[in-house]
Amino acid sequence: MQLLFQGRSLAFLATLSKDGSPHVTPVWSEMVKEDHDDLILINTFETSAKNRHITNDKRIAISIVDRNNPFNMASIKGKVIEQATQEADKHLKRLAKKYLGIGKYYYRKPSHKQIIIKIKPQEIMGISIHPAFYFLAYSPWNR
Asked: What b/e sequence results for 76-115 when a residue is b if at least 16 CB atoms lie within 10 Å of its CB, and e otherwise?
């Protein structure tokens, strides 16, 4: 699973809004080891809908698909264990370097205070099929 988070694949974060309906957004993410736990880190700004939602309900779900192999994916259920402002700007620059290839995120509004959402995975379901086996699923006669 860590390999999925090392690349530039977008993750899709699902939170629960105040009325209980799901809210899904594509996010930049990374997985880090902290105190023997694998944590997923996401960066957003304090007034974002996702941050408001997780302030009320810490349960989340994440789906991530390898951008080079759609049969390499994981679905994760977890809980937000921390919302941290410390080092959030530095974290955003690191994610911008990873996803954009430059160490600066030009679309950030100066009024937006950044926050790191730390997620502890609780349930993980994934599959990984090597691209060489794609032909097994394809048949021109079964349309």
From this structure: bebebeebeeeebeebbbbbbebbeeeeebeeeeeeeebb
**pLDDT exceeds cutoff 90 at 71:** no
Asked if 77 and 24 count as a contact pair (C-beta separation under 8 A), the reply is no
pLDDT of residue 141: 56
3-state secondary structure of 59: strand
Nearest to 124 by CA among 27, 11, 48, 7: 11
pLDDT of residue 32: 95
List the beta bridge partners of residue 73: 65, 127
**Residue 73, pLDDT score:** 93
- Domains of the chain are 2-137 (2.30.110.10)
Query: 98 near 90, Cβ under 8 Å?
Result: no
pLDDT at res. 80 = 98
